[in-house]
UniProtKB/TrEMBL annotation:
Belongs to the class-I aminoacyl-tRNA synthetase family. TyrS type 1 subfamily. The keyword RNA-binding applies. The keyword Manganese does not apply. One of its GO terms (biological process) is tyrosyl-tRNA aminoacylation. A motif ('KMSKS' region) lies at residues 237-241. Catalyzes the attachment of tyrosine to tRNA(Tyr) in a two-step reaction: tyrosine is first activated by ATP to form Tyr-AMP and then transferred to the acceptor end of tRNA(Tyr). This is Tyrosine--tRNA ligase. It comes from the Bacteria. Its main location: cytoplasm. NCBIfam families: tyrS. It is found in: Cytoplasm. It is an enzyme of class 6 (ligase). L-tyrosine binds at residues 40, 177, 181.
Length: 436
């Protein structure tokens, strides 16, 4: 599509690659010529932290605010009780109200790093849809809102259709989700004048429902805009790694591990990710993304630093880079590496290296840890681990001090004395094991 936007926000969305689809490019573009327009993205509270998969849309809200408009972060205190079935193969586990509230409290800290909250025209606000959903009268809701929805049309949306085509059960509870999300848009338009809902392209059907409902009930013109669902160039879902989800909360994923995730970006993704996840000028992103050979590695460091600065602060980014250079370039231990602390009592007369690898987060299971060892992918203090039967023990010296030693499966002592070990899985994943 060839369209030349007038508003700064739409121009940025198109230039940097955020835009998958829009219900009315020209109408939204014209509306955004007026400063202070409200837009929202909804976040269900299914975990204590958001993850890298949410970061694209958080950046959209950040650009929305930077171009003079008002972002709304809508926390799904109500909708989380139902669970979004979009493109899922099974029903989400239901959470208690207390667990949902705890998750929301934990998630809030991340948003404050990307958005400025307050009472000004372009200050962000955070809302909870439990405010209007929890008090709904079911019969009134069916009569006033439910009558506007065609079941035939709802079944035609790809997010639902794909589930039914696979003959996987879709509960009536989940089927109500899209009605509740549509009602959110209606309420936000009625209460706050919100004209735009944004989300990933998997939310397109839900967004269309909200627009149709608001037009029918209030006769207001509102809009929807979606971002692409990203995968990395090697086909992995964005935000996933061998170690699991890449959380945004520092208490669930260390800033170093977060930094390392971005440093490990494949060459083909560097330019695209710089445009989506940093605020570097587009020309710089294109130039850095076009580098090759060893030069692209420095571009990856810039990407990791810029993304980590936004999420965890400049100091955390600098510390992560320093740790990485210590580990990779100088062969050092790197004090900021993820650390597994084992007490002398836990280790006792022996804990297998397989267990230690799993507990350090370098493998998901003992089977995976053993395969890592068999494929010469595991190292301890820079030396390949070739013996899956290796045991870590503690002992007391003649002076009564606690020390650790490594015992091979044949009983031979491989190393002793060190209470701090550096474990490695492949070339890029490392962890410290501190005993004592």
């Amino acid at each position: 599509m060839t369209y030349h936007p007038k508003s700064d926000f739409i121009a940025i969305m198109m230039e940097r690659g955020y835009l998958a689809d829009c219900t009315d490019y020209q109408g939204l573009d014209e509306a955004l010529m007026v400063p202070g327009q409200p837009a929202y993205i909804g976040y269900d509270a299914t975990a204590k932290s958001l993850h890298v998969g949410h970061l694209l849309n958080i950046m959209m809200l950040r650009w929305f605010q930077k171009t003079g408009h008002k972002p709304i972060t809508l926390m799904g205190g109500g909708t989380t009780k139902v669970g979004d079935p979009s493109f899922r193969s099974d029903e989400r586990p239901l959470l208690t109200a207390e667990a949902i509230d705890d998750n929301i409290a934990s998630m809030k800290n991340v948003f404050a790093k990307y958005l400025a909250y307050g009472d000004g025209a372009s200050d962000a606000i955070m809302l909870n849809n439990a405010e209007w959903l929890d008090g709904l009268n079911y019969l009134e809701f069916l009569r006033d809102i439910g009558r506007h929805f065609s079941v035939n049309r709802m079944l035609s949306f790809e997010s639902v259709k794909s589930r039914l085509d696979r003959e996987q059960s879709l509960s009536f509870l989940e089927f109500n989700y899209m009605i509740l999300q549509a009602y959110d848009f209606l309420e936000l338009n009625r209460r706050y004048g919100c004209i735009l809902q944004m989300g990933g392209s998997d939310q397109w059907g839900n967004i269309i429902n909200g627009i149709d409902l608001t037009r029918r009930v209030l006769d207001h013109e509102i809009y929807g805009l979606t971002s692409p669902l990203l995968t990395t160039s090697d086909g992995r879902k964005m935000g996933k790694s061998q170690g699991g989800a890449m959380w945004l909360n520092a208490d669930m994923l260390s800033p170093y591990e977060f930094w390392q995730f971005w440093r490990n970006t494949t060459d083909a993704d560097v330019g695209r990710f710089l445009k989506l996840y940093t605020e570097l000028p587009v020309d710089d992103c294109n130039r850095l993304g076009a580098l090759a050979g060893s030069e692209i590695n420095e571009a990856k460091v810039i990407l990791a630093n810029e993304v980590t600065k936004l999420c965890h602060g400049a100091e955390a980014a600098a510390t992560a880079e320093a740790t990485a250079r210590e580990v990779f370039e100088k062969g050092g231990i790197g004090e900021d590496l993820p650390t597994l602390n084992l007490t002398a009592e836990e280790v006792g007369e022996g804990i297998s290296i397989v267990q230690v690898i799993v507990r350090a987060g370098l493998a998901k299971s003992g089977k995976e840890a053993k395969r890592l060892i068999a494929e010469n992918g595991a190292r301890i203090d820079g030396t390949d681990i070739s013996d899956a039967g290796l045991i870590v023990q503690v002992y007391k010296t003649s002076e009564g001090e606690i020390r650790a030693r490594l015992i091979a499966s044949n009983g031979a002592v491989i190393e002793e004395g060190n209470l701090k070990l550096k474990l490695s899985a492949g070339r890029k994943r490392h962890a410290l094991v501190q005993i004592g």
